[in-house]
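quick q for whoever's on today - can somebody do inverse folding on this one?? i tried earlier but teh output was garbage lol. tokens:
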């Protein structure tokens, strides 16, 4: 087992669990909570950029149960004040004729959580560091990285 990969996996898992903890317990002040969410997403994004490429084994990472995804969306909406907070953005910013599309902060927050979940579960079950890192990096590259950027842009507009 590569100790460097173990250190990377431990640190990223810590950040993911820190993000998960934002959705536990009674709701707090909306603006203060959104500020903590912004920092957590920025830290996760920066850490994801540093995840090294690894080769996965044949083992599949667990998926978040659908009922947990539904609960998470409801929790995100409640914590941001009962509104999903709609915003617009350009999906392909390098396409000069691209029209803006819509997103919601609640969906971004839930999608990030959902995409971190398989790696956290795999890590907790003792999965190989290569598999765990591969899962987090792949999900970041194909899905939650865009949600993180959208959320950060929306949060910046809300909080400043």
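ok took a stab at it. sequence:
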């Amino acid at each position: 087992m590569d100790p460097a990969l173990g250190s990377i996996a431990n640190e990223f898992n810590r950040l993911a669990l820190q993000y998960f903890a934002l959705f536990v317990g009674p709701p707090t002040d909306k603006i203060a909570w959104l500020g903590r969410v912004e920092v957590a997403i920025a830290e996760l994004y920066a850490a994801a950029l540093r995840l090294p490429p690894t080769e996965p084994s044949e083992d599949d990472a667990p998926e978040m149960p659908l009922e947990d995804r539904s609960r998470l969306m409801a929790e995100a909406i409640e914590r941001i004040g009962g509104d999903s907070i709609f915003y617009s953005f350009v999906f392909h910013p390098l396409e000069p004729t691209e029209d803006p599309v819509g997103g919601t902060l609640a969906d971004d927050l839930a999608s990030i959580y959902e995409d971190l979940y398989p790696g956290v579960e795999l890590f907790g079950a003792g999965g190989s560091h290569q598999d765990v890192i591969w899962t987090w990096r792949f999900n970041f590259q194909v899905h939650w990285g865009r949600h993180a950027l959208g959320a950060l842009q929306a949060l910046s507009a809300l909080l400043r």
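fwiw The chain has one domain: 3-159. also The radius of gyration is 16 Å. so keep that in mind when u check it
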